[in-house]
Amino acid sequence: MSFYTILKMQQETDYRIDIQHLTELIDARGAKSVGLQLPEGLLRRARSISKEIQNRCDIPVIISGRGCYGACDIDTALSEMVDLLFHFGHSGEDRENIVFVEVRSKVNICPVVQSAIAYLEGDRIALVTTIQHVEMIEEAKKILETAGKEVLIRCGSGDGLRYEGQVLGCNASAVDPRSDEVLFIGTGLFHPKGIASLIEKKVVAADPYTKNIELIDPEPLIRRRWVFLEKALDAHHFGVILSPKIGQYKQNVADEILKSARDHDIEAHLILLDEIREDALINLGMDAYVNTACCRIVDDMRKVILLNPDEFARLLRMRDRMG
Fold it and tell me: Are 57 and 132 part of one and the same domain?
C-alpha cells in the first residue's frame, strides 16, 4: 500500500460529517431522492454517506462523479434530478433544493503550527486556513503569540466566506495587508499558491496531515503571469470565456470585455465552456483567451495564453502606451 493511499485512508477518518443532521433535513423536507456532491479530497467518503442515508431513509441516492472546485461549482444537472442535493466541504447560502454541508477536520493542527514558527521571518503574521480548520484557528494564534508573533486574523469579503481567517482558492481577502507574511494551515498547495499570487506576499504553508512545511515565494508566480501578458501583446483575436457554473457565470464581465475589445479594434468572440481545459482552447484556435470564470484556472495553462479580466485590462493599457 502506497503512502498516498495510507494518507487518503487516514484523511477519510479525520473529518466530521453529521449524518443524523442530514437525515433530519431529508425528513423535514420530505425528500424522496438525494444527491451527493463532494470535492476530490472527500469523494472516498461518498459511498459510506450514501449507504447511511439509504439505510436510514430508504430513498435513492445519486453520487456526483464530477467532483467540485468550490461552492461556485454546483452540479446543476444532478440538482435537477433529485429533491435535495447535499454539497459537501464548502460554505455557502442554501438555495432551493441545495444544502451546503460544512465539513470539519479532527486532526490536531498544533504540532505543525509549532514547526512552522521556524520558517516565519516577519513579526506580523496573517493567519488563514480553509473551512475545515476554522474552529482551531484560535489555538494556532495562541501558539504564534507565545513565540512572540503579532497575529492578524480577519474575516474576508465575498461569497462563501463566513469565518475569520477563512480563505478560498480564489479569494484571499482574509489576509490582512498589514502583515509581513502569511501562515496558511491546510492541505495541498492550491490555496497557498493562490494567496501568494493574489496578495503578493510570502506564504508559509503548514499541512496538518503530512506535517510538511512549504514556502511559497510570490515572485516566480508573478513573473509567469507577466510572461503571458507579453505574449498576448501580439494576439489578434481573443476568445472570451463564459462559464455556465452557478457561481462562475459572469455575463456582465464578459460583456464589458467584449466592449473593451471592440473599442480597441480587437476581434473577440464569446465562448461558453463548462470545463476550461487547455486541449479545448487549443482546438478553438484563438490567439489568446480571457477567462471570466474562476480566476485560478489560468494557473493550469502552459501552451495557451489565458488572461483574467484584470490582466486583459492591463494588456489594453500596455497596447495604448505602445501606440
Answer: no
CB half-sphere exposure, 179, CA atoms < 13 A: 30
C-alpha span between 308 and 310 (Å, rounded): 6
Residues found in the chain: 323
| Domains contained in the chain, number | 3
Q: Which helix (H) or strand (E) holds 310?
A: helix 309-322
How far from chain centre, in Å, is Cα 237?
30
Residue 314 banded pLDDT, cuts 50, 70, 90: very high
Q: Are 199 and 182 in contact (CB under 8 A)?
A: yes
**Residue 4, domain member (yes or no):** no
Task: Report pTM.
Answer: 0.86
Q: Are 17 and 95 members of one domain?
A: yes
100 forms beta bridges with 87
Q: Scanning the structure block, which residue is given the C-alpha cell 502552459?
A: 302
What distances in angstroms separate CA 18 from CA 21, 23, 49, one per listed residue? 5, 9, 10
Residue span of the structural domain in which 79 resides = 13-105
